[in-house]
Write a structure and sequence with these properties.
The chain is mainly beta. Helices cover 14% and strands 38% of the residues. The chain has 9 helices and 42 strands. The strands form 9 sheets. The chain has a 6-stranded mixed sheet, with helices on one face. Strands 19, 20, 23, 25, 26 and 29 form a 6-stranded antiparallel sheet that branches. Strands 22-21-24-28-27 form a 5-stranded antiparallel sheet, with no helix packed on it. The protein starts with a helix and ends in a 6-residue tail after the last strand.
């Protein structure tokens, strides 16, 4: 309201004067007002105007028609940057009218390690006249510039392992797993780096999928790596993997610990100075009256200076994912404050639907949660592996210019071994999309030049789903089209989300139909039988009461059932083989009925939720009464399965 009033008053004032170009701006540093900014206007390399905002963050600049201007902004906290305004193409017939343009100037800290200040040697914003009664953004340029402000910390060309071994400090990163066929992760476990004389260098924890990272390590002082193990956890031993999932070494437990000697070869395999991981979770908006997914909302990843370095949008289950999270850094996970209604709190759940924390900080107009990536409990709980993520890939293909969308073109998506993963056909607008595929860090695109459909064009243009040009490729007649996007291009082509089997049960392309039963998505029915969803719902030994952790999982099931009124499910409870078969069957029946009662108590019709106990009759592994199994192996059999028995529609 304040901004609109300022604009209105200023325009009225200018109408009393000779008409000119009026630029009205608001200086913001991380979404907060920035005062005491000096502004210089240059034309032809000569300074024509200067002003200072003093105790205000707002400014107004009057410019004459018919010239090209650069407007520079200087503040002690920030790098110098400038915008460009091209008034040369404004016809003389418009000179008697006032042309106004209003913008927010997005300053950043010059000490911000995530900001590439070299990009400000170019204008951060361009303003053009394209006809009509107002000035316009050069939106293509402005969006492209904004994507280059944040540094890409992953190096495309990493140093060799031999050179890295002699660097002053390095990052050692890897993963610990049980040495067995199932290769289970050794998660949330203390792990220590020792010197050559056994002294402690640094200690940390593995995260939920067994990964660890030690930063600032001098390689020549490292002697051993040690992890705590549990009694009878795995007689076969533990495997040490590097960050590329290659086995480095194995060990057998002794005195409740495993140790690996760190010789030069082992160290070279563990050194990864570009190591990053992923985080993901679910956001739930909770109030006294209801609990619902924080769906279809913007989520930001900010660094310690509150600079937005990544942005995504929650899906219908409120999930979000951020890539390239560096170890031992401070981040904030944020949502827009205005999206959170009074009396509502935003809870963060992890992939297993365990409650992690509540957004508790307000800064720069956002509600946020502070996250330190030092492999502490909070960070470990929301860490996710590549195999727990899904991706969508979308782009539009044109020939020579945007007036020639190439339709009916078969596109094949390949992994980094050039193996086909999936195929799609462009629509009449030249757009193709791959949906809910396994996550790939790198992929390639290929197109079959059937009937020489591409040969009428000299160039092939690739545009992202937000209508930004990504790549121009020269086409050679008779050849198939192959595109090998670099890392920066992949980020613009790909949307990622956290895997959740319930997501397929909600209409994704048309949210208005969710719950109507008109369109339901599933690839699990048909000849393969009903869809099964296994949830990690824990009960205390020999008991069937719902635990607080189990309630978070069941609340998600309730939300899905409310969103899709056509779903009917069977709650199947399973036990391990410990104890008698009769007791296990009775216990599983009680647990299934308890889950059913919890769901139906929320208002879900009883006929939509059936309950059945299976006891130990459907073990997932060999751990029957005659087998000697570890507690980890027995735990695989203690589970709740949700069988979707109605409400699915076959899709191909």
């Amino acid at each position: 309201m304040k901004k609109s009033a300022l604009t209105l008053l200023f325009v009225c004032f200018c109408l009393l004067m000779e008409a000119q170009i009026a630029v009205i701006g608001h200086n913001l540093l991380n979404n907060a007002a920035l005062k005491n900014t000096k502004i210089f206007v240059t034309c032809g390399g000569v300074i024509t105007k200067t002003l200072t905002t003093l105790q205000s963050s707002d400014f107004k600049v009057m410019l004459d028609f018919g010239k090209l201007y650069q407007v520079y902004f200087q503040n002690d906290k920030c790098p110098v940057m400038y915008l460009e305004l091209d008034g040369k193409n404004i016809p003389s017939g418009r000179f008697e009218h006032m042309l106004t343009y209003e913008l927010n100037v997005p300053f950043v800290y010059k000490i911000d390690e995530d900001i590439d200040t070299t990009v400000f040697s170019r204008p951060f914003h361009r303003i053009l006249y394209t006809g009509g009664t107002r000035l316009c953004d050069d939106s293509l340029y402005n969006r492209e510039f904004a994507k280059n402000v944040v540094k890409k910390h992953k190096a495309e060309n990493a140093v060799s392992p031999d050179i890295a071994l002699h660097l002053p400090t390095v990052i050692l990163a890897g993963k610990v797993q049980l040495s067995s066929d199932v290769m289970l992760a050794v998660g949330n476990r203390p792990i220590s780096l020792l010197g050559k004389n056994g002294e402690l260098i640094k200690s940390s924890f593995t995260n939920r999928f067994g990964a660890f990272a030690f930063t600032g390590i001098s390689p020549d002082g490292v002697g051993k790596l040690k992890i705590e193990v549990r009694e009878n956890e795995n007689p076969g031993g533990h495997s040490l993997m590097n960050s590329k999932n290659r086995t480095v070494s194995s060990c057998r437990p002794s005195n409740s610990q495993c140790e690996w000697t760190m010789d030069d070869e082992s160290l070279k395999q563990l050194i990864d100075n570009n190591f990053t991981t992923n985080i993901g979770g679910k956001l739930v908006a909770s109030s006294m009256k209801e609990k619902k997914f924080f769906a279809d909302k913007n989520v930001y990843l900010c660094n310690k200076l509150n600079t937005v370095i990544q942005q995504t949008r929650t899906n219908l289950l409120g999930t979000f994912v951020f890539e390239d999270i560096r170890p031992d850094k401070t981040y904030f996970i944020c949502v827009d404050k205005w999206e959170v209604a009074p009396g509502v709190k935003i809870d963060v759940l992890n992939k297993e639907d365990r409650y992690i924390s509540t957004f508790d900080t307000i800064t720069a107009g956002r509600t946020s949660l502070k996250l330190n990536t030092s492999y502490n409990a909070r960070f470990n709980e929301i860490s996710i592996g590549d195999d727990e993520m899904k991706m969508d890939v979308e782009a539009t293909i044109y020939g020579d210019n945007v007036n020639n969308p190439i339709g009916k073109l078969k596109i094949v998506l390949l992994n980094d071994n050039y193996e086909p993963i999936d195929s799609a056909v462009t629509d009449n607008f030249g757009t193709f999309k791959f949906k809910y595929l396994p996550f790939l860090k790198r992929f390639y695109l290929s197109a079959e030049n059937t009937d020489n459909i591409l040969d009428v064009f000299k160039n092939i243009l690739i545009y992202s789903n937000d209508a930004n040009l990504i790549k121009i490729m020269t086409h050679q007649k008779g050849n198939r089209f192959t595109y090998k996007p670099v890392s920066a291009d992949i980020t613009r082509l790909r949307d990622i989300e956290m895997e959740d089997p319930w997501l397929e049960l909600i209409e994704k392309d048309n949210p208005e139909k969710a719950g109507s039963g008109e369109v339901l998505i599933s690839k699990g029915q048909g000849k393969m039988g009903p869809k099964l969803i296994v949830e990690n719902i824990l009960f205390e030994p020999n008991k069937y009461a719902i635990t607080p952790q189990a309630k978070e999982v069941l609340d998600k099931v309730i939300l899905v059932l409310n969103a899709n009124k056509a779903l009917k499910i069977e709650v199947g409870a399973h036990t391990d083989s410990k104890g008698s078969a009769a007791e296990n069957l009775k216990l599983s029946e009680m647990r299934a009925k308890t889950v059913q009662k919890y769901i139906t108590a929320s208002g879900i019709e009883t006929l939509r939720v059936m309950a059945k106990g299976y006891g130990e009759t459907q073990l997932l592994n060999h751990c029957d009464d005659n087998s000697n199994c570890s507690e980890v192996e027995h735990a695989q059999n203690r589970r709740i399965e949700f069988k979707i028995i109605e409400g699915l529609q076959n899709t191909k």
